[in-house]
């Protein structure tokens, strides 16, 4: 039970940093709303949308990194069908990221 | 002056819809923070990050669409160096989007 | 007729450079096949796949740039429904690029 | 030595399919050159560029999947610094893919 708890939150050591990054991304998205309200020039808004998208992408890559280094690694070390399943699941998540 | 005002906010007709979409994206990013706080499984967070990224991408494409249909089109109809500049600027924004 | 001919090949002035870039991309994809045949390490192949993808992306952005600067600009200068259709078509192509 | 050989080509079981896909991608890139030579309409070329990019992306995801399932899994099963290094290397490759 505890093993599972530890295993499934690969990002436990980076929690604070991830939340900080998400708060900044939230601020960027709120800033976008103000820009639209204020009739900011389209291109300037687009630049800010790209910045917010990149911030989320950085969070995704950090989560994935932690997931491979902990959850997938732990499952693989234990072996068996659960390990294969973890690898398949990670691959599917990577495919969604690459295609989004 | 008025012409410029009208020209530079290509998204004026979609303002309400864009803000609605940004509010939803903001909600998704706030939801992500809760998921991290609650030790939600990494893969489930990643799925939600992809959803938020896609929401921002949709906003970007809508802004760009409006920008081409109004700002760029108006500048091109007037011709001259300003038209070339608008096209170059739009191309650079598209490149940033494609590469982000 | 001639106007249409000129209009629809926005990239006419960059043709040689585009073909050169595509030939290089073709060489990269052929190089990838050799790497796979030779059992090259996965990560090194992935680096080369990213390079080939970026080469194609650069071609796409150049074509789009030329398309906006010539085909779309010409249609917009003439105005009417054809202009709107060109802008819509360009927006759809941009959306495909951003999402691919 | 043999173990290393087997370990580093995670895609060994999919070699034929990957080469087939790369040959198809090569054909698409050659087709693009013909389209440009023949003054094909920009938007139709762009559609084909997106198809070629997607074909390469599929190859990348397959290579990555095999790499995680074999090379990374084997290294993790053996443990130690080599395992950490393999995970870091895979994460960096994923980041390149997501950002390309």
Automatic annotation (TrEMBL), chains A, B, C, D:
Recorded GO CC terms: cytoplasm; protein-DNA complex
Molecular function per GO: DNA-binding transcription repressor activity; metal ion binding; transcription cis-regulatory region binding
Keyword set includes Transcription: yes
Subcellular location: Cytoplasm
Main location: cytoplasm
Keywords: Copper, Cytoplasm, DNA-binding, Metal-binding, Repressor, Transcription, Transcription regulation
Keyword Metal-binding: yes
CDD domains: CsoR-like_DUF156 (cd10148)
Family membership noted in the UniProt record: Belongs to the CsoR family.
PANTHER family, sorted: COPPER-SENSING TRANSCRIPTIONAL REPRESSOR RICR (PTHR33677:SF3), TRANSCRIPTIONAL REPRESSOR FRMR-RELATED (PTHR33677)
Name of the molecule in the record: DNA-binding FrmR family transcriptional regulator
């Amino acid at each position: 039970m505890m093993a599972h708890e530890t295993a499934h939150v690969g990002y436990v050591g980076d929690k604070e940093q991830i939340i900080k990054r998400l708060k900044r991304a939230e601020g960027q998205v709120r800033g976008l709303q103000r820009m639209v309200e204020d009739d900011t020039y389209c291109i300037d808004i687009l630049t800010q949308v790209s910045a917010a998208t990149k911030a989320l992408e950085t969070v995704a890559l950090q989560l994935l990194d932690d997931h491979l280094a902990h959850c997938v690694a732990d499952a693989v070390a234990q072996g068996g069908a659960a390990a294969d399943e973890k690898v398949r699941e990670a691959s599917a998540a990577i495919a969604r990221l690459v295609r989004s």
